[in-house]
Design brief:
By secondary structure, this protein is α+β, with helices and mostly antiparallel strands. It folds into 4 domains: 177 residues, Heat Shock Protein 90 (2-Layer Sandwich), CATH 3.30.565.10; 127 residues, no CATH class; 124 residues, no CATH class; 53 residues, no CATH class. It contains 14 helices and 14 strands. Helix 4 packs antiparallel against helix 5 and helix 11 runs antiparallel to helix 12. The longest helix has 50 residues. It is elongated, with a radius of gyration of 34 Å.
Amino acid sequence: MSDIIVGKHVLESLSLGMYSNPFDIFREYIQNSTDSIKAACEISLLNVGEGEISFSIDNSGTISIRDNGIGVIASLAVKKLRDIGNSDKDYLKNQGFRGIGRLGGLGYADSLIFKTSAHGEDKCTIVKWDCIRMRELLAPSNSEYDDIISVIEEVTEFSQPDEKQDAHYFEVILKGIREPFRSVYTPEHLDEYLSAVAPIDFDGQKFPFCTDIKEHFINNGYPIPTYNIRHVKRNKPIYKLYSRSLTTGMQQRTQTKDYVKSIEFISETAQDGQPLYIGWLAITDFSGQIKDERLQGIRLRKGNILIGDNTTFARFFSSEGAVANKMFAGEVYILHPDIMLNTKRDDFEPGKVYFELFDKLRAWSDHINRTYRRGTSKVSSALRTIEKALDEQKEIEVQVRAGAISSDTKRDKYITDLNKVSKTIAAAKKELDSAIRKGAVDPEKKETVTEKIKLAFESEKATVVINNRIVNADYATKSDLPTSYSKDERKVYQRIIEVIDSFFLHDPDTANQLREAIKSELSVKKK
């Protein structure tokens, strides 16, 4: 067994090939920082709420992530920061425990530096990974080393300079960010990523329901862990982006505002009696898909760190998964210790408790899809349909009054259009009547729905009046020509206009333009 060799290309898989999203390395470093801060709080080195994680990005292409956690003692630091997959963390307590995630930065910079100090020691430890040399050694054409140990020894160096005894921290430095990542890793992009992924607080000014959410979680024994994460230069905390209003609709013309009216809470216990999850859902008008990808979708979190992205929860909807998930905003926090994250931390490892989680979340997802999305969205859709159809009916009436009927063809078209609008209003009114009877209309919306039903009823009478006006309307061409034209000439003109109306039946603007052009040409009878 002593002849077993771990090939050098394993290092490539555990670093360069680990993440498809270049920002996910920051999730790993934040995860390690939160574990370090928790450890510092457990020994009273920090009080709860004193933990900080700071970021800095400079123009030279250097990114730093630093926390004020427990750090690593000098006697163990070098070994820990060169080992791979050899973590002594307890998976029951820590989000990171495999000892792999810290290597994520190897693929994105020229050098990866770890700097750490533990309280009470007068030394800090600096371990530097030479990423350029590592990539040279991992090239398929390079035969200098075959095993992973030799490569690590070649590309790492360490030092232990003096440090203040009261210092305690861990810092990751990505020096010489490679392109195209240098143009991607901007403060704005990093803020956006962290606002969705990091274990941070809500912004109470933008999202007043956060107080209810945090109190509910505390009262049930699961306070949401939050950390102060900020950029060094900006010195402003980063918050989650949830707010009182949500823009819905994927296209500009159909966009509208939905408002969070209340919060629905959920929780489940596993068969073994341990808590499975706890979560919250924003109750809105559900009038369409949430436009902002940073807010759309129910999010899965563990330790308040996002698992996957805004699409990960879609699997729990038994039908219309991605479409349905985009209608909702909320979070589900996984509590059971046996639900394990995969290596990339973008999903969970399959297992007995995970399958139990899947079944319960699928049942809940289908329930909210039926109760809120389909029911409420039908009412919202019917309201929009009636509003649009009433506008169309009004436009038909205006055009008929203005003398738009210039031929039998146009007369027939207006009758057809009016009947179509009338049927649309009747169908939408029926939908609203049914929703009122079933009690599916929110109290806040009931007055609006009742008013639209009344307008729809009144439109039935208006349809009869407009239809009679269309049937009895004289052709508007009567006054198109000067009196110098004879009766037969006027009949020929009328037939020409009728041909134009018929030919351009679905292009009334062109028909009107031709008519006006002919009128202008014939306005003075030539001899």
